[in-house]
Amino acid sequence: MKGKWQRNKYVGVSLVGKTLAVMGFGKVGTEVARRAKGLGMHVIAHDPYAPADRARAIGVELVSFDEALSKADFISLHMPLTAATSKILNDETFAKMKKGVRIVNVARGGVIDEDALVKALDAGIVAQAALDVFTEKPPAKDSKLVLHEKVTATPHLGASTMEAQEGVAIEIAEAVVGALRGELAATAVNAPMVPAEVLTELKPFVELAEKLGRLAVQLVAGGSGVKNVKVTYASARAPDDLDTRLLRAMITKGLIEPISSVFVNLVNADFTAKQRGLRITEERVILEGSPESPLDFIQVQIANVESKFASAISETGEIKVEGRVKDGIPHLTKVGSFEVDVSLEGSIILCRQVDQPGMIGTVGSILGQENVNVSFMSVGRIAPRKQAVMAIGVDDQPSKEALKKIGDVPAIEEFVFLKL
């Protein structure tokens, strides 16, 4: 099913700098927007149900329906057919478009008034239309729309080809295997949609985000009363290149699960936080330099709480932890005002002590006697012979007796055991 196509007339239409209006900003619309951005197009979108942060994350501006119509050089339809969208493109709406607009419909045939589209094509309002769907399926052989010289028609059969069916089967199998392994899924329903290649790059930072949340909430005295959390992301990449919804969900998971029986996942994270009165604000710090990595560091701060480890309180009065990814492994790099460097594997013991010789050996000997293996150790201090914080990574949880022995060391002023 193909209309007459004057290829010599339309070949060479430049997309760079042209405005694409994506009408319907769900998963398909979002992927179309990503690709259009890659082709150098300016992308706007209309969808009354689309979250603004998802659009903002890929550099797309959400606009009103009329604004989308009036600004677009290209319109791509990705909306369902409902009472509200039936014949949403009609004589009245075509009149609001730029002359020479091009329209692609791969959604539902009924969202376009086909008689009105023929008139718009004849009048030159619409320069070209590519249609994969029609009101009547299949359309009549003498359909003016299908036979129009400015229309390219396809039979909506792409998903039924042997290649597509094979591709879907492989994708499903890979997704199931990945889910059973506990891996993040790029195609999860009702979850932040992140392309597979971006997901691979973000994976260690996703793990870092959850563990920073777990550390931060365990530093709160009593564990409850957490209401205000600030997350800071530092990156040399442009803000539009970093979608933080996945990271925020994992920080939420880390904050809530250690102190409740609630299971938090990518789908329910924001709703669960809202239910519990947990307000998470996000801030981005733009760094100079080469953006080889999506993030330089993530920082989590909890305000208006007391801490069971006083050294975790920053100069401004919040519990503060900060971390980086090094060689693909999450590391804790700051507690309060103290610089540390400990791999976030197993569990952690934090000790504030007088900075003096023999402290590492003393604590290490106590753990060694308990057959607790030390995986990592780091000391951050204010100045020589002043206050210091020692961060110790351990593979196993020390006994209460071992922890008591550590606390009884005269130079240790406070300590806390944190389970990851």
From TrEMBL:
Residues 348-420 form the ACT domain. SMART domains: AdoHcyase_NAD. Its main location: plastid. It catalyses: (2R)-3-phosphoglycerate + NAD(+) = 3-phosphooxypyruvate + NADH + H(+). It comes from the Eukaryota. It is found in: Plastid, Chloroplast. GO terms for cellular component: chloroplast. Its EC number is 1.1.1.95. Keywords: Amino-acid biosynthesis, Chloroplast, NAD, Oxidoreductase, Plastid, Transit peptide. GO terms for biological process: amino acid biosynthetic process. Pathway: Amino-acid biosynthesis; L-serine biosynthesis; L-serine from 3-phospho-D-glycerate: step 1/3. GO terms for molecular function: NAD binding; phosphoglycerate dehydrogenase activity. The keyword Kinase does not apply. Belongs to the D-isomer specific 2-hydroxyacid dehydrogenase family. This is D-3-phosphoglycerate dehydrogenase. It comes from Morus notabilis.
